[in-house]
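Retry 2 of 3 after timeout on previous attempt. Resubmitting structure tokens to design endpoint.
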């Protein structure tokens, strides 16, 4: 969904919803990695029933990855997609169902966003190509050395990942072979059902999945405690998962790591951008141009039951005049998230998620529930009179929001310019090769760690990662090139783009008259045309109703779309309570090739039939205005082009289909086949209880007869099945579509067409918890956590409270080490009671893993962590490992008096001071032999004489 900051905001606000995936790696035998037995217990301490794959989130990173060399051809892309699915399957290990959903033709409301994205990608590709050619010619003229250019035909156009293209048709064929292969050969697949919904089946991938879940929940034999796991990176998957009201719903996605280095477009090396490139050494130019291999992407789980717990606390409303229903409040929260952005509507100008927009809406919402006596939504239907209250209250503070935003923006720009000036000073850090024992710049410091336990787990995985050495090699390669190339280093630190001028903004929302200027600039209407403003707001309200219905009931209309590029203001929503919630019924989606004509720019026309291509480029084409070569991108107050609004003309469906009617007869048989609306396919192996039942469908003569599934055999799954016209029956050979993979002889799997259960047109899927549904035990700290004994509560970090994820001793040890070595604890150490004037400077150990490091504590006197006789108060400068300072004696906690840090505990009982700063009760804190017998050491005499630096860490 179009909320770039939503997941970042959510994961920072509710950190406990994230769990890092435990992934078992196959054992390497004679250079060959043996696959894991996925029929064994899941190492994540959880067993999933159903795994759903939003396939477009897999296809794109496999076809044009950012952290490794791109595949050379389509065959390699297919193999990479297979490997990605294997990896997700190995992590999740579903026991009942694997559902693969590829994006099919989308509703018109989504096609506008797809059209904007593809036109923008084509425009940026042309601009980048021209810029590369210009820079290349300039560099060669100056004598720089560059590798040879790739031939133009080898460039992959990601626009082909769209329904109706030959690429998507071949992908479906390859996935059918892949499914047959795994069902025949992988024991983890033997007892599961597999559904493939390819690009010829209409609907977005994630909404096909949600439609399946909704319809199965309405079946009488559905298990209400099914554990769902959905794989995808879109932020709207979180809202979709919450909207199911399933008690066990988890999302798996790639871990997002911001500010990852990207290779230069000219030389494919890290450390600089294309415009800063100075080429390669001459001897390297004849080698193939390849990107450096990045670290393997890791995965995280998002635990929606834990998110529900957090939202239950945030949305709590006491004293209502009616019974509080959290499920209704949760639906309202999902609805309000649409206001800050989605794929179908532009977000309201006054709402930015980084400014706390959702929290602001929640506060207004609670007032609304109290004052209006009810909720905003009910099973996907909006109560517009109550939404009017929310909009009115938000409209009252719009002016204040815009002015506050301006003040903060100016302050940010001021700080940013000051930072850039400091970097350009002559005394900026002189960088060296960043290895474990290399010093960092003196003024670099280190970033505070907000979740030490989780960071410890990250460090542990990185230490054992097979890609660690490759990462060091990459950084060494980059650093060495910069050391031998002063021009590159100079350009790196004098990047003038950091001081870009403020983008032009003729609306100036922070100044009086902002609304008049906005409508004049964005809609080109007169200031006194108030009726038009209300018209835009009414269309937007209709859009909110359509989006909510889409999330809870399915697509209300395939034809509806918001007909403007910009949103109205909250204060423009007037008298919306009487607007209709209904949409045109019995609408149909575009066919695949028709959608290509609706979303593709002319630059991607090669994926269309020849006569269809002419409609995109001929001057006398009746729809040539749908395909502008150049178009304006309105930054709309933003800084970067990708944040702006692409001002493209909207496609008129009637004109488009009229023009296509003249060229439909030119389609070949293959093109006609790619243009049909397809059906889902269901696959099972010979070991599944349904195999005999499905095999019997092919014994009769009526191959198109639809038969209802026997839910006892299908593990409660309902729906209709009938013969697949291209099925490969058991005993036959499944021919490989890829040259590097062998044919599958004596196939023992079977496939049939599948259709979800059908319901009457006026049926409403209830948004509620099903009877007998059981939620997992609570994970977060309850309000009455004192009831848990000793006033202590330990959060649950994994899927089970007794999970090995939490009790891993190595992780606990690293937590302690991180706390010793991060600047986030510097504020707890300003004690100067010992001999040294300063307590010492804590500098973390390694730049690569633990932050910018120096390798130990730098105190006033000598000695090592494990060496020497101790100093006058601090650990000495030097190495980590040595003689005997940390290691003598037999006591494990602060010397011989474990209970009270010395003999006079009474002087440290100030309840308001967590670090026991009240020292008047005794002298053991100041130079005694008990508390100061070593920094959480094993006793002994080292570290004595006033170890004031070491208190308060545990």
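Retry 2 succeeded. Sequence:
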């Amino acid at each position: 969904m179009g909320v770039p900051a939503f997941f970042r905001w959510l994961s920072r606000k509710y950190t406990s919803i994230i769990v890092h995936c435990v992934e078992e790696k196959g054992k390497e035998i004679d250079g060959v990695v043996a696959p894991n037995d996925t029929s064994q217990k899941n190492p994540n301490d959880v067993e999933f029933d159903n795994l759903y794959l939003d396939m477009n989130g897999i296809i794109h990173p496999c076809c044009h990855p950012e952290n490794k060399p791109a595949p050379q051809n389509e065959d390699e892309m297919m193999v990479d997609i297979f490997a990605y699915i294997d990896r997700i399957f190995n992590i999740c290990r579903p026991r009942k169902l694997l559902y693969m959903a590829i994006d099919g033709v989308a509703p018109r409301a989504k096609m506008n966003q797809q059209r904007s994205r593809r036109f923008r990608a084509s425009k940026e590709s042309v601009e980048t190509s021209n810029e590369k050619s210009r820079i290349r010619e300039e560099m060669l003229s100056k004598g720089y050395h560059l590798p040879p250019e790739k031939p133009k035909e080898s460039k992959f156009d990601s626009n082909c990942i769209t329904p109706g293209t030959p690429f998507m048709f071949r992908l479906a064929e390859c996935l059918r072979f892949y499914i047959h292969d795994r069902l025949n050969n992988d024991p983890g697949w033997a007892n599961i059902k597999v559904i493939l919904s390819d690009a010829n089946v209409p609907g977005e991938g994630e909404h096909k999945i949600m439609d399946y879940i909704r319809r199965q929940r309405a079946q009488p034999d559905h298990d209400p405690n099914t554990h769902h796991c959905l794989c995808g990176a879109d932020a709207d998957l979180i809202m979709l998962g919450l909207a199911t009201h399933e008690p066990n719903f988890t999302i798996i996605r790639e871990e997002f790591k911001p500010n990852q280095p990207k290779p230069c477009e000219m030389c494919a090396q890290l450390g600089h951008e294309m415009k800063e490139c100075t080429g390669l050494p001459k001897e390297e130019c004849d080698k193939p141009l390849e990107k450096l291999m990045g670290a393997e992407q890791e995965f995280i789980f998002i635990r929606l039951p834990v998110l529900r717990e957090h939202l239950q606390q945030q949305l709590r409303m006491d004293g209502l005049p009616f019974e509080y229903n959290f499920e209704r409040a949760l639906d309202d929260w999902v609805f309000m998230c649409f206001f800050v952005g989605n794929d179908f509507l532009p977000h309201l100008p006054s709402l930015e998620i980084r400014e706390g927009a959702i929290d602001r809406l929640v506060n207004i919402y609670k007032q609304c529930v109290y004052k209006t006596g009810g909720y905003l939504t009910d099973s996907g239907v909006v109560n517009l009179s109550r939404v009017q209250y929310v909009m009115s209250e938000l409209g009252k503070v719009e002016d204040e929001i815009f002015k506050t935003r301006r003040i903060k923006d100016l302050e940010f720009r001021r700080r940013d310019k000051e930072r850039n000036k400091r970097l350009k000073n002559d005394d900026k850090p002189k960088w060296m090769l960043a290895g474990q024992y290399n010093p960092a710049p003196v003024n670099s410091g280190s970033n505070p760690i907000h979740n030490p336990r989780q960071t410890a787990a990250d460090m542990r995985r990185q230490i054992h990662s097979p890609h660690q050495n490759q990462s060091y090699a990459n950084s060494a390669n980059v650093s060495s090139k910069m050391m031998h190339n002063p021009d590159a280093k100079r350009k790196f630190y004098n990047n003038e783009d950091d001081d870009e001028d403020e983008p032009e903004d003729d609306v100036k929302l922070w100044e009086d008259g902002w609304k008049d200027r906005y409508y004049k600039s964005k809609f080109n209407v007169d200031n006194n045309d108030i009726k038009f403003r209300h018209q835009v707001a009414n269309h937007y309200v209709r859009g909110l109703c359509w989006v909510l219905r889409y999330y809870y009931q399915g697509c209300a209309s395939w034809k509806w779309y918001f007909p403007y590029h910009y949103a109205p203001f909250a204060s423009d929503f007037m008298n919306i309570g009487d607007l209709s919630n209904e949409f045109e019924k019995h609408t149909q989606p575009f066919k695949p090739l028709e959608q290509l004509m609706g979303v593709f720019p002319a630059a991607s026309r090669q994926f269309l039939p020849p006569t269809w291509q002419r409609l995109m480029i001929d001057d006398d084409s009746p729809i040539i205005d749908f395909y502008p070569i150049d178009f304006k991108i309105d930054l709309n107050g933003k800084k970067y082009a990708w944040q702006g609004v692409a001002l493209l003309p909207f496609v008129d469906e009637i004109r488009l289909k009229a023009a296509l009617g003249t060229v439909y007869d030119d389609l070949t048989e293959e093109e006609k086949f790619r243009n049909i609306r397809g059906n889902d396919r269901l696959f099972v192996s010979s070991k599944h209880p349904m195999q005999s039942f499905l095999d019997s469908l092919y014994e009769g003569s009526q191959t198109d007869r639809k038969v209802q599934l026997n839910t006892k055999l299908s593990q409660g799954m309902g729906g209709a099945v009938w013969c697949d016209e291209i099925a490969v029956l058991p005993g036959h050979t499944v021919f490989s579509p890829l040259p590097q993979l062998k044919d599958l002889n004596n196939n023992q799997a079977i496939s049939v067409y599948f259709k979800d259960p059908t319901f009457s047109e006026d049926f409403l899927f209830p948004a509620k918890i099903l009877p007998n549904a059981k939620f997992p035990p609570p994970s977060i700290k309850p309000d009455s956590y004192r009831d848990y004994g000793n006033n202590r509560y330990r959060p649950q970090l994994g899927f089970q409270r007794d999970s090995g994820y939490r009790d891993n001793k190595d992780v606990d040890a690293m937590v302690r080490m991180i706390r010793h070595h991060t600047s986030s604890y510097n504020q707890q150490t300003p004690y100067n009671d010992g001999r040294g004037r300063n307590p010492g400077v804590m500098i973390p150990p390694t730049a690569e893993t633990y932050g910018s490091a120096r390798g130990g504590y730098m105190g006033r006197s000598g000695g090592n962590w494990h060496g020497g006789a101790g100093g006058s108060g601090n650990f000495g400068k030097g190495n980590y490992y040595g003689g005997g300072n940390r290691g003598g004696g037999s006591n494990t906690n602060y010397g011989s008096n474990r209970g009270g840090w010395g003999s006079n505990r009474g002087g440290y009982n100030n309840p308001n001071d967590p670090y026991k700063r009240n020292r008047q009760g005794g002298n053991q804190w100041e130079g005694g032999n008990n508390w100061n017998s070593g920094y959480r050491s094993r006793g002994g005499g080292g570290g004595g004489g006033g170890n004031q630096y070491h208190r308060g860490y545990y």
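Attempt log closed. The mean pLDDT is 79.
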